[in-house]
Specification:
Elements: H1 19-22, E1 27-40, E2 43-56, E3 60-64, H2 71-79, E4 86-91, E5 94-95, E6 103-106, H3 118-123, H4 133-146, H5 162-174, E7 180-184, H6 192-209, E8 212-216, H7 220-226, E9 229-234, E10 239-245, H8 257-267
Parallel strand pairs: 3-8, 3-9, 6-7, 7-8
Antiparallel strand pairs: 1-2, 1-4, 4-5, 9-10
Magnesium ion (MG) binds near residues 72 and 184.
Length: about 270
């Protein structure tokens, strides 16, 4: 179903609209009155309530919210893994009703197969495509280089660190050159230093590939470091409380006073 939108909704945006935002925007993804309920003990449990969010092509959106507020559920809907929802999720003019190779997701756990090498795990992304063997190998090699893992092609997951495994997961997500990258707490299990390094790398990949990116994180600093906007969610049912724009140049300096002001402002929603 093709959907056009006459009115651009940036409600709850905290700052006055700047010139760029007043121009007609090119939206990659539109969440239009999206609600979702699960059945719990035979009763419907509303998990997402009236989610309204438009994401521009090439935008980086961070989503923060307490555990259980429906962040993973929302990403599952956007991926198309779950088509049971109310409202519309429109990706490039089409209502999402199933998965697509154009949208990739990375989870907190790397989900690599332990019996396959780094290279073989990434090659698996091509299994539903008709890309030639030669092209598959060339793209996997290039993607491994992009995430800084050259030399580890033949390593098995148990032979590399958690941070490296997450890079493999990101390489597997990007090797089909999706336009939309979804990340569900991708660095949540990593130590602080590895996490900061991967945040820098994710930003570089996002800039390099022109990806539209939605990052779910419980790390508010990560959300501020990476996002053009931060969507703050509340729980039971999951709703958008507000959307905080981050208009700082990249790469962002975590010790800068404006960075810390935004971080503290978002954190104040949870304390
Ligand atoms: N398959 C399911 N059946 C019933 N309830 C579910 C299911 N998946 C998630 N939930 C519930 O939906 C709510 C949101 O879950 P989730 O999207 O995983 O939250 P988050 O990722 O923000 O922690 C939670 O209360 C969770 O228990
Ligand atoms: Mg989750």
């Amino acid at each position: 179903m093709a959907v056009t939108r006459a009115v651009i909704d940036f409600r709850r945006s905290e700052e006055p609209k700047d010139e760029a935002e007043q121009q007609p925007a090119s939206y990659a993804l539109q969440l239009d009155h999206v609600s979702k309920s699960y059945l719990l003990h035979g009763e419907p449990l509303k998990v997402l309530d009236d989610i309204q969010l438009d994401i521009r092509s090439g935008e980086f959106v961070s989503i923060v919210g307490a555990s259980g507020c429906g962040k993973s559920t929302l990403l599952r809907l956007i991926t198309g893994l779950d088509a049971q929802y109310q409202g519309n999720i429109v990706y490039q003019g089409q209502r999402i009703s199933g998965t697509s190779l154009d949208r990739s997701i990375v989870f907190q756990e790397h989900r690599l197969f332990p019996w396959l090498t780094v290279e073989e795990n990434i090659l698996l992304a091509f299994s539903a495509t008709n890309v030639s063997q030669e092209e598959r190998h060339a793209r996997v090699k290039a993607q491994i280089a992009t995430v800084g893992l050259t030399g580890f092609e033949k390593a098995y997951p148990h032979q590399i660190s958690g941070g490296m495994s997450q890079r493999v997961a990101i390489a597997r997500a990007l090797v089909l050159r999706p336009q939309l990258l979804l990340l569900d707490e991708p660095f949540g299990a990593l130590d602080v230093l590895t996490r900061m390094k991967l945040q820098h790398e994710l930003q570089r990949l996002w800039e390099q590939e022109g990806l539209t990116t939605v990052l779910v994180t419980h790390d508010v600093e990560e959300a501020v470091f990476l996002g053009d906007r931060i969507v703050v969610m509340t729980s039971h049912p999951g709703r958008i409380k507000r959307i905080v724009p981050v208009k700082l140049p990249r790469p962002r300096i975590r010790s800068a006073s404006e960075f810390q002001r935004i971080r503290d402002d978002v954190l104040s929603d949870f304390i």
